[in-house]
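ENTRY TYPE: protein
WANTED: fold as tokens:
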Amino acid sequence: MSLPLVGISLGDVSGIGPEVTAAALALPSVRRALVPVVFGDGPTLERFPVFRRYARVEPGALTRVEGPTRVEVSRLAEKDRVPGRPSRAGGRAQYAYVTAAIDAMRAGHVDALCTAPVSKEQISRAGIPFMGHTEVLADAFGVEVMMMMDGPRVRIALATNHVPLAALPKLLTVEGLTAQLKLLSRSLAPVVGRRPRIAVLGLNPHAGEGGLLGREEVEVIGPAIRKARAAKVDARGPLPSDGLFARPDEVGKAYDAVLAMYHDQGLIPAKALDFERTVNVTLGLPVPRTSPDHGTAYAIAGQGKASCVPMVEALLKAARLARPPARAARRGPRRPSPRR
């Protein structure tokens, strides 16, 4: 059986993305699992011996490839690709790597996408409003998606992503949470081989204490769970997050996934339990997308200190999730745009 073609966007070239990607792709275990198609900066890729052996392709000329390939989306000046010193030009370039990789996904040229870390701040400073990979992918394919942190001990999905805490009460709705629970159950069923068991967290301390500490559990989260259960989703809650994660080993045995209401409620336990091996997976896309569970790490970029283990885990997860090409299903209604 042929290996899956995994597109890889290089991330911010001033961060650790290039070095951890190069280190991961040099490993025999990764080479045996996938064929890499790397979207990045020509001079940056030339710094690493592993990429010098790859076939070189211009973005517009990419088709289904036979072996490791580098797609040179940019050729940044030396001052714009210094490790630890991000630039506006680098901000524009890292967004271009993502959009070029998405174009390849939509055209059926790759079977999965793994994204190295970008800087939302630097992309925004370059004049491109950007909230994250997840939002751009949802826009590109015209679908509802969910962010899930897939760790070896527990999977944690997010009901909301990169939004201010003050906006949460208005963003959480019965209809929205019900749809997310259905998506989470549908996405995990093939993985676990049955209806997945889902723990649903409350928004407020102690899951609201029956309305004493907030009404969201009573008026929104609880009704959403009941509607989801009526649709054959095995959802339980709302549960207090502090009590649930106090026994992390039991969580993984009792539940196949946890639905957190907001970013830090989910990512703090995910990273605390197993930072290196937890992979960010986007659910709901017609093509798998993964990412390592860390940022650009400018403070150590270019110093040889960054671990490639998270990138290895993200690449291997992308390869496992990849399905045979289905070009018609991958064509979303529009290209990603800077509107998000």
User: Anything to note?
Assistant: Residues 324-340 have pLDDT under 50 and may be disordered.
